[in-house]
Amino acid sequence: MELAHAQEIFEQLYSGFSGYDIARSEKERMGRQEAATTYGEVIPAAFHDVMLAASPKEGEVFFDLGSGTGKATILAALTFPFSRVVGIELLPGLGDAARQVLGRYDAEIRPRLPPEHQRQRIDFIDGDFLIQDLSEADVLFAHGTCYGPELMGKLTHKLEELKPGARVVMAGQTLASPELVFQKMKVMKTDWGSALAAVYQRR
Ligand SMILES: C[S@@+](CC[C@H](N)C(=O)[O-])C[C@H]1O[C@@H](n2cnc3c(N)ncnc32)[C@H](O)[C@@H]1O
Question: What are the residue boundaries of the DOT1 domain, all occurrences included (predicted)?
Fold first, then answer.
């Protein structure tokens, strides 16, 4: 769907709550104050622009590694012809918020969209992306500006196991691995400032 139409739907779905407030209270509740749980969100046009650099193709599967309230995942579903989109999030309160948004999308918006959107599978999974199965992923996004060196080391090893040809859009960090071939770099505006987003392809 056109970005402008996707943006209208996106604004409707996300009006009325703050991912920042949910993240703050979830971090306190879970006792997770590590840098990696620092919250931040994509903005539609900038996210769309960096995703174009990964050349998503019809029927491919998208994963957001650290999906927050699901903004990148929902935008990926609306604007690219993925057969499945998956958000994985560590803080369950953020995952709950994403599933609430998905519930509204399924009830109020999806029924009036074309068949390709009816067929699309959208999942929000609670958990650590380091221990989730990513073997189905063709295009992955990680908004990881605050992911520390240890997490980035483990994530890099995890991404080395992706299927050949899979693309990773890594915002705020770089990936150093002979298995992940650098393709492009873009500036991605976010709701908190801007990050460099690098696109890699699994060899
Ligand atoms: C900067 S936010 C990005 C949210 C969303 N992707 C976006 O761009 O709008 C990063 C998210 O990653 C989550 N996160 C950090 N480490 C994680 C891990 N190991 N597994 C799953 N989620 C993680 C954080 O809790 C946070 O919600």
Answer: 1-203
